[in-house]
Amino acid sequence: MKSFECESSSEGDEPSIYPISRAIAAPPQWLRGNATPSWGWPQSGASSSAGGPSSSNMEPVGFTPFAHHSNEESQIPGRRTPLGAVGLGGFQFQGPPSDENNPDPAGPPQSRSPQNRTMPNSQVVQGGKGKNRQGKSVRLNINARERRRMHDLNDALDELRSVIPYAHSPSVRKLSKIATLLLAKNYILMQANALEEMKRLIAYLQGTASTAAIVAPPGFDLQGFPAAAKFLQQQQEEGRNEGSSSASSGNPL
DNA sequence: TAGGCCATCTGGTCCT
DNA sequence: AGGACCAGATGGCCTA
């Protein structure tokens, strides 16, 4: 691979810190501030990556989860054309006007970036031997397919960006590919953790519904469940009131 | 200016 | 044979 490799996260232990992981753990400035979700970036030493974020931080602020902002993306600095600007088939080639590489006979569309990209390799490497004589059109077809494939991949990444909560804002730069993948992974871990906690809470409430006093079990963190905490508090207060009013009966509930 | 990120081209490998 | 997938190489843009 290249200089960055994702941690082999199949093991649950502490992932080794590759350069890219450090970059994610300490996101660049354009991702800090409002852009940084409270759950997204693995905290060094905190129980974020494997165990998920602390439940007290589960309420991210500054963004709208699951909101699609493809229109806003057009204003975000970046090189890729927003999804809405291109057809379903992905991006059209926007290279130099020369192009035999242009699969669109109608001519190259407006370049998606201010500059017209040059295609340095297309001519240089072709100057070789008979192998390249397989036919220019064949090679160009292969190139077009590969381009389309990469565009599809980027479209999928855009869709992934649209469903992971982070600051979708014109002033916030688009997540990089690797950041998108790592953020999505952390989001999945967080959701799984929240689901587990919810299951435990439901099981506990069901188990104590018929008993006298409802008390949070030792070690159970209710900070992430304000509604549940409020409910328990109400139950305890009601229990106390009834206990005082019907002290003669001695019935705790 | 260096480094990060990206798009594209290219050749190799595997699969149908 | 043709297509999908992959990784290396290259060069451009942007930001600190």
TrEMBL record:
Compositionally biased spans, kind Polar residues: 110-125, 232-253
Pfam family, one: HLH
InterPro entries: bHLH_dom (IPR011598), bHLH_transcription_factors (IPR050359), HLH_DNA-bd_sf (IPR036638)
Composition bias, Low complexity: 37-56
Region feature Disordered, mapped onto this chain: 1-138, 231-253
Ranges where the BHLH domain occurs: 137-191
The protein, known as: Class E basic helix-loop-helix protein 23
Natural source organism: Nicrophorus vespilloides
